[in-house]
Amino acid sequence: MAETRKEPRKYWNLPGFWAASLNPWLLKVKNNPERVAFVLHRVTGAIIIFYLLAHIIVTSFSTNPTQWTRIMEEFSTSIFNKVGEWIVAGAVFFHGLNGIRLLCVEFCAVGIGRPEKPKPPYIPPSLKAGQRTAIYVVFALSLIAWILAGILIFTGRLF
Amino acid sequence: MGRASSIQILQYITAIILIVVLTFHLIERVPGLSPLGAKSYEESVKIEPVKKAYSSYGWVLGVLLIVALFHGLNGLRGMLLELRQGRGWRIFVEVLIWGLFVVFGAWGLRTILLMT
Predict the structure, then answer these.
(1) A1 or B20, which is more confident?
(2) Structural domains in chain A (count)
(3) Which of A10, A17, A68, B115 could covalently link to B54 via disulfide, CB atoms 3.0 to 4.6 Å apart?
(4) What is the ipTM for the molecules in this complex?
């Protein structure tokens, strides 16, 4: 009997495709700061890359001094622009500080502990060696830097 | 594209470079610490300090541009490929990311070369 050829499955029309794709980002975050840090790192990264592309376009206007002065005057008086800059500053600070933590753990193998045989109560290595403390330190430092950036952007001076 | 492990190592190396270069770029906007000598945040984005930045250390801005574009677009590529899989989608993402890198890299480098 000739076998019928199976049609390749198209995943996009399966029920719950979008939920399955976005589900890792939206899992419950109660007592899970690692998940919050993971999601925030990605969200802030996306914000920064879109800002970077716009920043490259805007800075290209600096070749025309008259146009650059006019644009900067508009930006300095626009509250929408200042709030947007503040949001991007917060994204940069969190992404950078969390990135330093990730570099230490993933690239330099600092703070991850030595490999060992799993024993009860089976605490994952990512929760040992101060990793959770490091995440909370990143959150705190990002918040402090974000507040300072807000003071600089909205008042024009820091000290 | 190259091996995923090589690309990830480049992602880490560009992250390290970005921490240094981007910190310098942000300090330019802080009055009192800025090497441009600006007295306030608004003054640091006027045309004279901006021209001074390009002429004094335009090469640093060039490094920042290329490294930030690579790091950011590679991250975006990873997120898009995790969101959806398939040969057509992968080709679309590769073409999009490479296109953005070449276009915006050239655009930024043109600005830097014109201003230095």
Answers:
(1) B20
(2) 1
(3) B115
(4) 0.90
